[in-house]
Amino acid sequence: MDVHLRELRYFVAVAEELNVTRAAERLFVSQPALSKQLRVLERQLGFGLFERVPSGVALTRQGEALLPVARDLLGRWAAGVEEARAAAPAGTLVIGMQTAVGRGLQQAALRRFRERLPGWEVSLRLVGWDDPSGGLSDGSSDVAFIWLPVPPGVRTHVVATEGRGVAMPADHRLAGLAEVPFPALRDEPFIALPAVAGPLRDFWLGLDARDDEPVVGVTANTPEEVFEAVTSGLGVVLVAEGNAELYSRPGLAYRPVTGLPPGELAIAWREGDRRPQVVAFIDALRQVATKV
């Protein structure tokens, strides 16, 4: 039986909230995605964890028995990860990324970081959009470049604020426009992030500027999957202005979109994390970002 830490984290959150909707908000995932993962976990275990009550859900006897075990496993894993990191002789800072960073930020910040902590190595880690925390929630990243909005328990410093545009096939009917009004995209199929990305998925579908449900052409988990789907004609996708150049490729057109608030790229870290390597990188990035 292969039960993942994420499933245990979902179980504990629902057990503590006793309400799937509140737990989904706390976990920064959609309610349907959370309910689906709970059903998967119950099928793997072979017994139910919750039963429905008028106020939400209640733990079954099996759920009550499993809860302290799940909490203990999650706590021991988090402690083990920190002990393993501390055991590294030279030290390694793991930087999670959901997309390429560019913008003159990362390289300059890394130079300053190495000047301050010359014995430390840096590991860059691409994290799928199924983890909107960029690897912070499960401890696999020390810091992360992620797009707002972010999950609870994460602190951020915004390093870039950029308009949102649309990437589409070069022969798309709207590619001849200098700017695309957002209403012109309402009936277009969109490339969407996974449902577990929650509010981050909603933001890049433009739900903050529309009162109807978007048409989803395909779901993608990485930038490569997104732009392959676009050039294949499966849909369009909202893209931050700075990412348009980073992901430019033949057969792809980018146009600014009017009628949308901008996107915000941030460096993020776990709330309360004051380890020297984390503080050093954040300080280095803040110094660089003020000059870009």
From TrEMBL:
Keyword Protease in annotation: no
MF terms in GO: DNA binding; DNA-binding transcription factor activity
Instruction: Say yes or no: keyword Transcription present.
Output: yes
Annotated InterPro entries: LysR_HTH_N, LysR_subst-bd, WH-like_DNA-bd_sf, WH_DNA-bd_sf
Per the UniProt record, one Pfam family is HTH_1
* Domain annotation HTH lysR-type: ranges: 1-60
Keywords associated with the record: DNA-binding, Transcription, Transcription regulation
- An example Gene Ontology CC term for this record: protein-DNA complex
Question: What is the superkingdom listed in this entry's lineage?
Answer: Bacteria
TM region positions? none
Family affiliation? Belongs to the LysR transcriptional regulatory family.
Q: What is this protein called?
A: LysR family transcriptional regulator
Please name the source species: Nonomuraea deserti
Give the classification, highest ranks.
Bacteria, Bacillati, Actinomycetota, Actinomycetes, Streptosporangiales
